[in-house]
Give the backbone structure.
Amino acid sequence: MSEPLKEPFVDRAVIEINGGCNYTCQMCPQTTAEGKHGARGKNWLKKMCLPEFERIVAECAEHGVRVINLEGSGEPTLNNDLHKYVEIVKKYGAKAFLFSNGYKMKDDFMKRVVDAGVDFFRFSIIGYDRPTYFTWMNSINFDRVIQNLHEMKEYVDRTGSNCTVATYHLILDQENVEYEKDRYLEIVNSAGVKTEIWKMHNWSGVYDTDQKRKGETRTCGRPFSPDLVIRAGGLDGKTGAVHPCC
């Protein structure tokens, strides 16, 4: 006699509310593959409508979801009504997390998102000055993003918001780790925010390597973890595709 199926448990749901992005970062697999639409294809570059988003959030809430990320592989701030998505997450008792390039997080748009109750907002800043930022993020907006970082942190502090403002960085030269870490910390400390500084992964294939994985290839564990990844788009014009990995 087979064992009864266990009730599914979802701790974190990554619900992509916008599949497209306004950046073409060198280290991102979405923008380094050949083809007009990068690695994803136009069917995946959709915006998730509010009713569909609320339906998915409500279903996740039934299974214990604690945190909902609103970015996936797209840029969530391209949704002008982003604060409404945050409000839906809070309505169902979950924490709202956002990972973003931060280009649009300024003025009234930023204030609406903070006031809606976002719990965690992370600025992805790959490059510690204008030249390195341009090389890796293909953008001249380094100064604007740093200004937005300061503006958001100041607004959060002034209003007493519970939002944690943070940054995310990648080491670009493995031979100069300490130097680059110190340069990034200048940005972090000037704004008084939390940060994560990672060594570069190779998802996008920017490193040429002959190294082969040793031993038996195993899953990373993500397909069996209590994390649910849902895309804005999908195959054949469908939306809300479930994906086994970020």
DSSP finds seven helices and eight strands in the chain.
